[in-house]
Design goal:
The chain has 161 residues and is an alpha/beta fold. It has one domain. The strands form 3 sheets. Strands 2-1-5-8 form a 4-stranded parallel beta sheet, sandwiched between helices. Strands 3-4 form a two-stranded antiparallel ribbon. The longest helix is centred in the middle third of the chain and has 18 residues. The chain is globular and about 40 Å long.
Amino acid sequence: MKKFLLSSCLAGENVRYDGGNNKIENETFRGLIDQGLAVFVCPEVDAGLPAPRRPCEIKGEGGGKAVLEGRGEVYGDDGQKLTEPFVKGAHMTLQKALEHGCTAAMLKHRSPSCGSTLIYDGSFSGVKINGRGVTAELLAANGVKLFSEETLEDFLKYIEE
């Protein structure tokens, strides 16, 4: 079995922007956590942002890739620019992946850090667009295979190979 990164909110830790979690209740998945295969990460909290915190979205074209390249920004719904902690958290998460030999990551869908296929469009109106969050983009660029709670079955097959 392989070690993997896991968004802490999916493990049940109350680190979401609203102070809650998105705990996955699948028995097989919980068994992987119990075996110590999961390396918990919350890029935002790891970089020093509180939980709860203001909802954040990526503004500008290109999602997380644009943020990493300095062409996009992350903002809170109050207008505060929070790009720096999102980039810092992404690099901290990549470092954890490298330290623990993680080749896969189970990340929170639609998050401005962890979204692996969909993120919000930056308008704070609930509109979703194709794209990756900042951390997901950095991990993918470094060969880490991305999964979300939406692709749990695929993840379970991959991790048990």
